[in-house]
Amino acid sequence: MTEQTVLVEVRNRVGHLTLNRPAGLNALNLDMVRQLRQQLDAWLNDDQVRVVVLRANGEKAFCAGGDIRGLYDSYLAGDGMYMTFFREEYALDQLIHDYPKPVVALMDGFVLGGGMGLAQAASHRVITEGVKMGMPETGIGYFPDVGGSYFLSRLDGAIGQYLGITGTHIRAADALYCGLADHCLGSDLVGELDQALDSMQWSDEPASDLDALLHKRASQKIPGSEIKAMRSAIDHHFSQPDMPRIRASLAAEECPAYQDWAERTLAAIDSKSPLAMNVTLELLRQGRELSLPDCFALELHLDAQWFAEGDIMEGVRALIVDKDKNPRWNPPTLDDVSPARVAAFFADFQPGQA
């Protein structure tokens, strides 16, 4: 018997979906995506389910992303599964965005990549103080997908560019400040929230019932946001028109309050794929003007080219397969990335086809 990777339970008209691969940080594979989709489809017209709660087992992660090693192996094998995974994963995220019943994403630990795709689609995004959230794709030579071109590009100022380009992990105060979470619930109160859900008398407005429940028990703002403290520097540097100028702007930071942060940010940029960062910047620019379905379609358009033409295979080799942590990016520096190469990835995309 293989362990069930998604657990399903209905209690008091609440459908609970629990990601159950804690040893793998609940990373999504195609089977898990299909199980989640099947259950959400089944509950769509089920009057016995008024609310859905999406959560995870294990203390380390809600979901640390997609099973990227499996996608790497699929591309090498030439079986096409990696594109099937992206298509079905994005369709699942779109379904959650559009779901007519409230969906609570209850998050603790790492929420990265594919985990963010699930979480940002939910109507009620609830974190604990232990959350570590981010879109770290450029570090493996990839770009923020799972709707990242939509939800990152709509953050205030240049926060989306900063998070997407650097892959920075943020904690609870930042997640609330940035608008990537709605409520922060103490991890010691999760059991109490479950008891409240189990005893709730649901009205005809379950979303309002949930709002009242969460406002009573959780915080909508907590002190200590590092992004708030660095906000003017983030907006200044990451609103520059291209990656070389973003880097040059950071290198020229003279304000003592921001210099340590600027140096750390420069080090982060210098470790990422130059091509992936350039494509990410353009992806977020275009995503800002696109509908959510078109954002997913654009990400798929890039996926179809990226394993052959981008840096992901080298990034996964260096960081996950061989673990030499010495990726040979192509091209190796920001100055070597031609605008024409970046533009070519987007050239044949037609919005409105989704």
From TrEMBL:
Query: What EC class is this?
Result: hydrolase
Residue ranges occupied by any Enoyl-CoA hydratase/isomerase domain in the UniProt entry: 14-346
What parts of the sequence cross the membrane? none
- List the CDD domains hit by this protein, alphabetically: crotonase-like
Which InterPro entries does UniProt cross-reference here? ClpP/crotonase-like_dom_sf, ECH_dom, HIBYL-CoA-H
Q: Name one GO molecular function term.
A: isomerase activity
One Gene Ontology cellular component: cytosol
| EC numbers | 3.1.2.4
Catalysed reaction(s) here are: 3-hydroxy-2-methylpropanoyl-CoA + H2O = 3-hydroxy-2-methylpropanoate + CoA + H(+)
SUPFAM superfamilies to which the protein is assigned, alphabetical: ClpP/crotonase (SSF52096)
UniProt keywords (A-Z) are: Hydrolase, Isomerase
Q: Which GO terms describe its biological process?
A: L-valine catabolic process
Record carries keyword Hydrolase = yes
The name on file for this protein is: 3-hydroxyisobutyryl-CoA hydrolase
This chain's source organism reads Pseudomonas saudimassiliensis
